[in-house]
Design goal:
- The chain is of the alpha/beta class.
- The chain has two domains: 117 residues, Rossmann fold (3-Layer(aba) Sandwich); 192 residues, 2-Layer Sandwich (Dihydrodipicolinate Reductase, domain 2).
- 38% of the residues lie in helices and 22% in strands.
- It contains ten helices and 13 strands.
- Strands 8-9-10-7-11-12-13 form a seven-stranded mixed β-sheet.
- Strand 11 and strand 12 form a beta hairpin.
């Protein structure tokens, strides 16, 4: 299969590094509006050609798969052009600004027998895969509640989101800069709580001097399988990204920035001893995860992007075998429908 990429920014390097390791996949071209960025990426990752016009690239190369890794506000337009050229599309989140645009992408893909895969990559990080397996095995019992929380200082000095002189491209999206992270929160809530029946979002601006329309978000979701609470905070410290699933037989918490999975179970001991035993287990897990995390950071490879690499690998394997990719069209639609409901009433950028 021939692969091409549009948008040679930071996240593109992960896509290109992964594609370069896939058997039977040729990196045919890289495109970026900056000639220097396109040429450097092509040379570094072994692409045969580079372009500054994506339509010219699509016409000249006729790739089988196009990776869209440009800024979020142009994802939909670029994905439409790639689908119109007969390509499968792997697109960074958010694939579209609205559920209506997401549905349009899916309609276009279906008409051409092609696939659109949004990079809901945290679904494929090891702690989440283990957590999903626990849920499938019934180890936690019936799911009751899901909490997905991200604490990330996007207002720190030097952050591209906080530059008052160069507005970040995500500010044009409903929800502003937080919309760049909301697909991660929503995809995880969708995976564990199921399609939603009702969802409400609360948006706030804690720092009045920031250029963001909102820097705090909370969401409450009623899903088919469980309720879910979503949190994005620019002010909570330290940085963290966690997913907790509470069930009728136990509770498990997955850490994503520092990968680990802590499981709290009902144990066959006197009830007052249960917290102590779970606490000892959590301590051992934290120490082991800290050591593994340090090794992971020093050893090279995908690091925190392991889920993205796994998603890309599985997508190419599925496309090559004529199977549905790991992030299917139903999931993409369900996640964007949830996002639409959560951003309803979010303040716009001024």
């Amino acid at each position: 299969m021939k692969a091409a990429l549009i948008g040679a920014g930071h996240i593109a390097r992960q896509h290109l590094a992964c594609v370069g390791r896939l058997p039977g996949v040729e990196l045919a071209a890289v495109c970026d509006l900056s000639p220097a960025a396109a040429e450097i990426a092509a040379e570094r990752f072994g692409a045969r050609r580079w372009f500054t016009d994506h339509r010219a690239m699509l016409s000249a190369i006729t790739p089988d798969v196009v990776h869209v890794t440009a800024p979020p506000h142009v994802h939909y337009e670029l994905a439409v052009d790639a689908l119109s050229a007969g390509c499968h599309v792997i697109v960074e989140k958010p694939a579209a600004a609205t559920h209506a645009e997401a549905l349009d992408l899916l309609r276009r893909a279906h008409a051409r027998a092609r696939c659109v895969v949004e990079c809901q990559n945290y679904l494929f990080n090891t702690p989440i895969l283990r957590l999903r397996q626990l849920c499938r095995d019934g180890a936690l019992g019936e799911p009751v509640h899901v909490e997905v929380a991200m604490f990330l200082d996007i207002l720190a000095a030097g952050s591209p989101f906080a530059d008052p002189h160069i507005p970040h491209p995500t500010l044009v999206l409903p929800g502003g800069a937080i919309a760049d992270f909301l697909p991660h929160l929503a995809s995880l809530a969708y995976a564990f709580a199921g399609p939603h029946r009702e969802a409400h979002g609360l948006w706030a601006k804690r720092d009045p001097s920031s250029p963001l329309p909102s820097d705090e978000f909370r969401g409450l979701v009623e899903g088919d399988r469980a309720t879910a609470a979503l949190c994005f905070s620019s002010h909570g410290r330290p940085d963290a990204f966690t997913v907790q699933v509470s069930g009728t037989r136990g509770r498990a918490t997955a850490g994503l920035f520092e990968p680990r999975l802590v499981v709290e179970r009902m144990r066959r001991v006197p009830r007052p001893l249960v917290p102590a035993l779970n606490g000892l287990h959590e301590g051992r897990t934290a120490i082991r995860a800290a050591g593994q995390g340090l090794v992971r950071k020093l050893s090279g490879g995908p690091g925190g992007y392991e889920g993205l690499w796994r998603l890309i690998e599985q997508t190419y394997s599925a496309l090559g075998a004529g199977r549905q990719p790991p992030v299917g069209h139903e999931q993409l639609s369900g996640v964007h429908r949830l996002i639409d409901d959560l951003v309803a009433g979010a303040p716009a950028v001024r």
